[in-house]
Write a structure and sequence with these properties.
This protein is an alpha/beta fold. The protein is built from 13 helices and 13 strands. It has 2 domains: 224 residues, 3-Layer(aba) Sandwich (Rossmann fold), CATH 3.40.50.450; 150 residues, Rossmann fold (3-Layer(aba) Sandwich). Helix 8 links the parallel strand 7 and strand 8. The radius of gyration is 22 Å and the shape is elongated.
């Protein structure tokens, strides 16, 4: 069959799920169909599932406009994700030969991968192999990560909704803590996702407004964490208020690089990319505070809720996720490969942004951190510059489609049989 007859697309989702990743999938699918592609395949559990021959024809599952709208409102990853690290081409060429054979058998023109840093590493390696072998398949990355740490893009789809949920939840935690009467006061430590980048934890500051003081302190992993100074600050704050709320990134660490979570947690799990599982930071700090101060403490881990809360999704985020999905498909269709779609902010007020494509080699395996000048001098809060940056990203709501009082989601019938 000639190249011009090969009019199929394959799309996958990788890494941590978000409340917006399926909106990008909907954008890829709709744009591919609008541009005349015959089939749009979806990898079940990303590149790892593809290697095992697991994929579906999305045309059989997204049949109506209502299906597409449900998909945009469905949290997690409709296709399932993976954390599979492709070996280097020189170490295991066979893996690439298997992948490209599957792609050729499916008559794939365009390969779209929706994900974060590790996913862009996959796009980089596959596009490099295509160049080496002379394959004409185009590989384009579509940004996704609540961590908001991808290089060269103003922000990433998924972050706005997670930030909105965090700001909302921290405000509710503050209100709950205020209501309780305690003898020696209380300290609530809220643990928020963020290994090396503190974008999510910084969003706790969104809770501050005319009706709320916001968290009393915010600690990001961009700066070393001093436990003694932390305890001292909490003691000082308790002299002024009976209920203290502190937001901490799960990845805060001591000066020597030891994660605080490691000090009180023996978890040894490490994923394929060498990332240690981080959990228990808030619990460890609460134990120290209880021993040193003698006050009531409570550790609160938002955990997966911050990336799964589609009922609290940002309209801006969902719309942008859909747009970057479409932009990735458009870029691949027009001949781009080894690229990732990025969002470029044009103005803050009114908020305006557009998309363009950048070389994935300048993005993969890089990490964008919160700027030091967006963190206060003492390292215990964020500045107004951060708030100016993040507020446009959380605007608007996306009403869930409710059935019997509970949001309805789109799912893959017979999904378990595909595993």
């Amino acid at each position: 069959m000639s190249k011009k007859d090969k009019r199929n697309v394959i799309v996958g989702q990788s890494g941590g799920p978000t409340a917006a990743i399926n909106s990008s999938l909907a954008g890829v699918y709709r744009t591919a169909k609008d541009r005349g592609y015959k089939k749009v395949y979806g990898m079940i559990h990303g590149i790892q599932g593809l290697l095992e021959g697991r994929y579906i024809d999305l045309s059989e599952h997204i049949r109506t406009g209502l299906d597409a709208e449900l998909l945009k409102r469905t949290p997690s990853a409709y296709l399932g994700t993976c954390r599979y690290k492709l070996p280097s081409i020189s170490d295991d060429r066979g893996v690439y030969e298997n992948i490209f054979k599957i792609l050729e058998d499916l008559q794939i023109d365009c390969f779209i991968y929706i994900g974060g840093n590790d996913s862009m590493d996959t796009i980089k390696k596959l596009s490099d192999y295509a160049i080496i072998t002379g394959s004409e398949i185009r590989f384009v990355g579509c940004p996704k990560t609540i961590d908001n740490d991808l290089a060269l893009t103003d922000h990433t789809p998924g972050y706005g909704s997670a930030a909105k949920y965090i700001g909302t939840s921290v405000k509710e935690i503050i209100r709950d803590g205020w209501a309780l009467e305690t003898t020696n006061g209380q300290i609530l430590v809220v643990e928020i996702m963020g290994r090396n980048a503190g974008w999510l934890t910084a969003a706790a500051a969104l809770s501050k407004g005319e009706d709320c003081d916001g968290p009393d302190a915010i600690y990001l992993p961009e700066l070393d964490f001093d436990i003694d100074k932390f305890v001292k600050k909490c003691k000082e704050m308790l002299k002024k208020k009976r209920s203290i709320v502190v937001a901490v990134s799960e990845g805060i660490h001591t000066k020597d690089g030891t994660y605080i979570s490691e000090l009180g947690n023996a978890t040894e799990y490490v994923d394929a990319f060498g990332h240690k599982q981080l959990t228990g930071t808030a619990r460890y700090l609460c134990n120290i505070l209880s021993a040193e101060i003698g006050c009531k403490t409570r550790a609160i881990e938002l955990s997966t809720l911050q990336r799964a809360a589609s009922h609290c999704a940002s309209r801006v985020d969902i719309l942008e996720a859909y747009e970057v999905g479409g932009a990735a498909m458009k870029a691949a269709d027009e001949g781009d490969t080894g690229k990732m779609v990025v969002i470029q902010r044009l103005s803050d007020d009114p908020y305006q942004a557009g998309t363009e494509v950048k070389d994935v080699h300048k993005i993969a395996n890089d990490e964008r951190l919160v700027p030091r000048d967006w963190i206060t001098k003492d390292g215990t809060y964020v500045t107004n510059e951060f708030l100016t940056y993040v507020r446009p990203l959380i605007q608007g709501d996306v009403a869930p489609i409710m059935v019997d009082g509970i949001p309805r989601h789109l799912y893959v019938p017979g999904y378990q049989e595909l595993l």
